[in-house]
Write a sequence for this structure.
């Protein structure tokens, strides 16, 4: 051993020196991007956290700790239960799919049962926590979060599904394919302000506007659309159940918010379809040929070839879609009005109002941080649920 | 929020974190403003900008001190406000800025504006008592801020007023049909209701638009709330106690009245931007309440539409005399500049609010001038637009909305609660809640002065 050691040391030193040079070169290459991300991405986030911990309106005041968060949540136990519940969903999924798996395929029954129980617990914790927060917290902001959830879950799945169908149709050999692609993509490149203004006109409460005209053709009374603050469930079933109370989360979004959801679907479906088309182009045609020889019809080919192989694209669009809807601002700002009251005020609108109208910069910063954390958890959930399957582990 | 907004917030925060800008008393008497260049941020565009630039040019070429004013269009009121908030405390603020009173109050939370009182009272640079008396009292007072020790944080170069626009031809038809029993515009809420309800069921014969007729189109807006409250003898703010009074009996009566109109189908919301103006011009809407600054647009709408006889009037009231809601942005002097620049900026404002410039400005902008003496020079203009003269004669009855910080936020609150009331919410309960919230917002804002 002692005779070998001296010959090895210089070799290792040479390797380390070369590696160091390579690392240095690599770090120099990533340095500009890192600086840009740090200055324009991480620093503002950190600074928002800093602002949120101070009394800060037009000018910076005293350090107030978590006071802004306390007044937003109202009840820390409620917040703990709510966010704990969200994390429990991740735990439940892990129990259901991974825990105790070992070398076997799939988790054993008792693990799945435990996962189901955890999921149930997560639901109870979220509901309980939310109730406590709504009692004592900032209802304006919390209701904004609820509308954000409505908007995200109301628009993204439909956008994705419609886009997938459209892309599949456009991928066939049809005449005017390029024209259709362009037409479907147009809403995405239309300025949001212009698109929202047109939607305001179409969905105006006036009986002579397009949406109400269409309803008139099928014998339905004109609706107030963007001015309608009542939940859609009440509009649909209020007549059948006149004594029922259509309030709370399960009453669903207002008709005004549904119009905004329609706007989101209109805007992003074409964009998603174009991305799906790129994904479809990467699927080997031989797979379809082989499936056809094996007797698979078009529906089965779509179900067992197209959908699974587009999973990475679907995952990408879903993640971006939810992040986008949770951050959405411009069209919501255009489509709101005095008569709409707060029916379309999602979290980002509430934050804007807190910042510019109330001049409460620290509260707006705290609300931004909370929204940021929620988006982060949501992205983690999507990654946990679909990421591995979509990205092949 | 998007990263960009985080960046904006952070940059604002950094700028605003600079040490507080304490103002020191300045002796303006011995300041020499000669040769100064001052910037003026405004929101006027198109014809109004042209007229303003002419006034600026006239000042630049005639003032004896060689002062040069550079007028810069900086977007709308909100754009200017957002830029100003970011720049307060730096020397990058303009020397003159357009600001609503509540915006000025927000700037002053960090001593962002110059108190103009020493300039107004200055023997060398100030206004004579005769000059001051020439201003309409309501306009003159609206820039004195009780919540900031009665400092003068602006001076009015123009004002607008909330007016009732009415279709006289349609009213005549309704009277001929025996549906109403008064001549001219309605002066009481009862007359207004009778006419609005009759109109909503009896379309104007000359209407050029199809669809059901509207008696009154109400736009959800805090200024409408204030106007109707004033007309019912109430107020939205008590300047003596510095508290909101949104649940004032006058406010409750006014909202109950409007709610009643909605319940009876005699009133509807304005559902599209300027939709009330368009409908009015087409003879589809009998009444609207809107700013006098819209007079030229109403005139165009009627000429392009049904071409009927129309006019403006005081909002129907329960008070012995009309009480009119006057408003408008003033011009303020941001702090942080040299006394020489400040005096130079003030001298331009003195010129801008002088009789000669006011006559030119009122004619071109169709805003109201701020001096009574300007009326003499507006004879031709009165003849070309008779409703303007009607409105002008009501200026003595004007009072203003609150000039306190955070009023923008309160306005949004009022909008929301007003819409709830028109949708059937209990009026007293809603306004009690709104008043409590508004005063909490006020306390929150004023706490920044502690």
């Amino acid at each position: 051993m002692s005779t070998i050691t001296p010959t090895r040391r210089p070799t290792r030193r040479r390797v380390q020196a070369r590696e160091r040079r390579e690392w240095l070169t690599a770090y120099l290459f990533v340095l500009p991007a890192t600086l840009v991300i740090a200055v324009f991405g991480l620093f503002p986030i950190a600074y928002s956290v800093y602002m949120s911990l101070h009394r800060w309106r037009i000018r910076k005041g005293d350090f107030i700790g978590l006071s802004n968060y306390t007044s937003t949540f109202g009840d820390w136990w409620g917040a703990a239960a709510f966010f704990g519940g969200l994390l429990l969903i991740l735990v439940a999924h892990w129990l259901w799919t991974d825990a105790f798996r070992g070398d076997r395929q799939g988790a054993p029954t008792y693990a799945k049962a435990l996962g189901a129980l955890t999921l149930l617990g997560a639901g109870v914790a979220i509901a309980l926590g939310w109730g406590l927060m709504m009692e004592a917290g900032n209802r304006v902001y919390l209701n904004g979060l609820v509308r954000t959830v409505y908007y995200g879950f109301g628009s993204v799945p439909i956008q994705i599904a419609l886009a997938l169908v459209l892309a599949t149709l456009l991928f066939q050999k049809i005449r005017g394919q390029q024209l259709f692609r362009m037409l479907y993509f147009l809403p995405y490149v239309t300025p949001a302000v212009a698109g929202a203004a047109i939607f305001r006109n179409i969905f105006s409460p006036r009986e002579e506007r397009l949406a109400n005209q269409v309803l008139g053709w099928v014998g339905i009374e004109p609706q107030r659309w963007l001015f309608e603050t009542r939940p859609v469930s009440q509009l649909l079933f209020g007549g059948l159940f006149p004594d029922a109370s259509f309030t709370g989360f399960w009453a669903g979004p207002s008709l005004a918010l549904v119009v905004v959801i329609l706007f989101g679907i209109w805007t992003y479906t074409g964009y998603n379809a174009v991305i799906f088309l790129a994904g479809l182009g990467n699927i080997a045609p031989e797979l379809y040929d082989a499936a056809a020889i094996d007797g698979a019809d078009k529906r089965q080919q779509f179900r067992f070839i197209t959908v699974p192989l587009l999973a990475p694209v679907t995952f990408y669009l879903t993640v971006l879609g939810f992040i986008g809807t949770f951050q959405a601002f411009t069209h919501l700002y255009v489509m709101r009005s005095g008569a709409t009251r707060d029916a379309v005020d999602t979290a980002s609108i509430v934050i804007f109002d807190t910042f510019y109208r109330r001049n409460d910069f620290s509260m707006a910063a705290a609300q931004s941080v909370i929204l940021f954390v929620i988006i982060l958890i949501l992205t983690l959930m999507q990654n946990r649920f679909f990421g591995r399957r979509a990205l092949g582990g | 929020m998007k990263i960009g907004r985080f960046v904006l917030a952070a940059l604002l925060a950094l700028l605003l974190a600079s040490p507080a800008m304490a103002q020191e008393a300045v002796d303006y008497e011995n300041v020499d403003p000669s040769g100064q260049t001052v910037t003026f941020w405004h929101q006027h565009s198109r014809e109004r900008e042209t007229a303003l630039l002419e006034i600026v040019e006239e000042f630049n070429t005639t003032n004896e001190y060689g002062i040069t004013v550079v007028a810069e269009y900086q977007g709308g009121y909100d754009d200017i406000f957002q830029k100003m908030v970011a720049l307060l405390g730096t020397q990058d603020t303009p020397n003159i800025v357009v600001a609503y009173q509540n915006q000025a109050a927000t700037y002053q939370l960090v001593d962002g504006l110059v108190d103009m009182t020493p300039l107004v009272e200055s023997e060398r640079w100030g206004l004579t008592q005769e000059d001051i008396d020439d201003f309409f009292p309501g306009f003159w007072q609206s820039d004195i801020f009780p919540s900031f020790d009665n400092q003068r944080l602006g001076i009015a170069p123009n004002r607008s007023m909330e007016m009732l626009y009415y279709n006289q031809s349609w009213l005549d038809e309704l009277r001929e049909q025996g549906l109403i029993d008064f001549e001219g515009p309605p002066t009481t809420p009862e007359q207004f209701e009778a006419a609005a309800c009759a109109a909503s069921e009896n379309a104007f014969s000359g209407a050029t638009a199809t669809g059901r007729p509207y008696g009154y189109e109400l736009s959800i807006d805090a200024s409408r709330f204030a106007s109707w409250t004033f007309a019912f003898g109430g107020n939205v703010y008590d300047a003596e106690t510095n508290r909101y009074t949104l649940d004032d009996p006058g406010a409750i009566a006014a909202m109950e009245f409007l709610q009643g109109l909605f319940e009876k189908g005699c009133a509807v919301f304005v559902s599209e931007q300027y939709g009330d103006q368009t409908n009015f011009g087409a003879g589809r809407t009998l009444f609207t309440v809107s700013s006098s600054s819209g007079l030229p647009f109403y005139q165009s709408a009627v000429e392009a539409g049904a071409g009927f006889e129309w006019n403006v009037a005081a909002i129907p009231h329960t008070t012995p005399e009309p009480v009119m809601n006057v408003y408008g942005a003033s011009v303020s002097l941001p702090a942080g500049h040299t006394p020489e620049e400040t005096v130079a900026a003030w001298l331009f404002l003195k010129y801008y609010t002088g009789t000669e410039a006011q006559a030119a400005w009122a004619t071109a902008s169709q805003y109201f001038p701020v001096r009574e003496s300007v009326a003499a020079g507006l004879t031709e203009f009165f003849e070309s637009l008779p409703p303007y003269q009607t409105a002008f004669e009501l200026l003595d009855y004007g009072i203003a909305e609150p000039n306190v910080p955070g009023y923008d936020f309160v306005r949004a609150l009022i909008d929301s609660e007003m819409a709830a009331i028109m949708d059937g919410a209990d009026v007293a309960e809603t306004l009690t809640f709104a008043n409590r919230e508004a005063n909490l917002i006020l306390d929150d804002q004023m706490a920044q002065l502690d």
About this structure: Chain A has 16 helices and two strands. Chain A touches chain B through 47 residues (CB under 8 Å).
